[in-house]
Amino acid sequence: MNRNDWIADAARLQAEDRPFALVTVLRAQAPTSAKAGDKALVTADGQIHGWIGGGCAQPAVVKTVRQALASGQPQSIRIAPTDETAERTLGDVLEFGMACHSGGTLELFIDPVLPAPQLVVFGDSPVARALTGLAPRIGLQTVLVAEGAMTGDFPDAARVIGSDRSEAVAQALPAGGLVVVATQGRRDLPALRAALALQPQTLWFVASERKAGVLRESLIGAGEDPARVAAIVAPAGEPIGAQTPEEIALAVLATVVAARRGRPVRTAATSTTTTAATAKPAPKFKLDLPPMEMGSCCGGGAAQAADAESVSEAAPPVVAAKSCCGGN
Asked: Taking the model in full, what pTM does it have?
């Protein structure tokens, strides 16, 4: 066995998006077959790729690996001989008693390696494109969902799904997770219905509060669960005065990172209050355009009239702006 085989195994497991832990022997006191520096990759189902000692140590390692994969936190453990199996915490080290006859003491460091969290982005809009470009740079895999979307149009997305039908999306993606709907007037309702079908942990909608209210009523009228509809967070993102698509994406990703790290985030129940307390109201404006010319990046759809008066609070317009997304 080559002691560096774990490197190839790690590459394979990462390519398969399978979580594992890198287990390293820090110290080995004879008699033990493992040596300091020995390494192995251990998966949640107990597979061990490499060498970190014999069968006496493996149950304690597998148990701790499962805990580390669930929490995402590394752990140091000590496995020492004793008359009975016991488990106790000594400072930041978890100690296991080992009743095997072989004796010896092992100290190991267990470092979980988890697949990049997935962010599902709905929409073929400037903000959706900015999100798929920025999210991988902060360690997120993006899945782009938009009707007719082509893989080549979103080079930074880990995956592109070219249909926003609820049935197709639910079959293609697992339930839960983090979802952003950034359709901005193009197929808002189909995207929101498909996003709700995923039963996401958090669902953000890039839209003004007024537009979100109109679409919430439409969703409930179409039979969607009122509680899930009420949980849609809109306006999406931190109130940083964002104007361009890239700035809006940055504001949205700030809340995504907070949710990922378990920090307090704006919710549907608090978004209005938070915005009012920390940011100036977005100025209202009226577009003097004929009806057929309302197809801006945020216009159109079921809430077109609402968009003509207000836009997402995450993107207050400026005088020179030529679209409701801000910017030029």
From this structure: 0.66
